[in-house]
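Lab meeting, action items carried over

1. Structure of the two-component assembly. Owner: GW. Status: complete.
Input record:
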Amino acid sequence: AQSVTQLDSHVSVSEGTPVLLRCNYSSSYSPSLFWYVQHPNKGLQLLLKYTSAATLVKGINGFEAEFKKSETSFHLTKPSAHMSDAAEYFCVVSDRNTGNQFYFGTGTSLTVIP
Amino acid sequence: NAGVMQNPRHLVRRRGQEARLRCSPMKGHSHVYWYRQLPEEGLKFMVYLQKENIIDESGMPKERFSAEFPKEGPSILRIQQVVRGDSAAYFCASSPLNRPADTQYFGPGTRLTVL
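Predicted assembly:
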């Protein structure tokens, strides 16, 4: 069985400060992991993905995430928040070998304070 | 290269009516997925289709919901006799290859409101 837990439903940061959005996963198999961002009333945009290569993954807009198997985590970080980063962020897990289903976390709403 | 297209973007139906949601995958993509997002929740998988085939419908409600992806034209998610609990955002995604866990590219969604 696969599942994702996003530990914080809401995160607030000041503009220019670091962002940390936490994600823990559970997977019976080798996981693929993704972070998607959803702006209000918009579709989902892929930020980054981990399949089986480097454990530190760099994505768009300065975001990155590190796959830590021992901690079953895939936390999303950014050194300096921008106002345009305010959105809903979803962590997603899928089985790398057989899975076509994506399993979504419940999302983390990021607020950026000017 | 246009992204995944969904229409309509907003759909209002009264209880008991039918809702038809359309999804055109990205050019060159032959795999389509439907997800439902209830308010304040993440997306939940409903169904995975290839052209003329339903591959995995384990997330579909047993009654009133159906999906198809014909040889020509968009994928259709059909909800018969809608109820208030069907109000949600329905997202379609597509991927290019028959490769598990490949990146799925999402459309903007259809927001269904049942009055």
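2. GW to write a short summary for the group page. Key points so far: The longest strand of chain A covers residues 87-95. Chain A has no helices and twelve strands.
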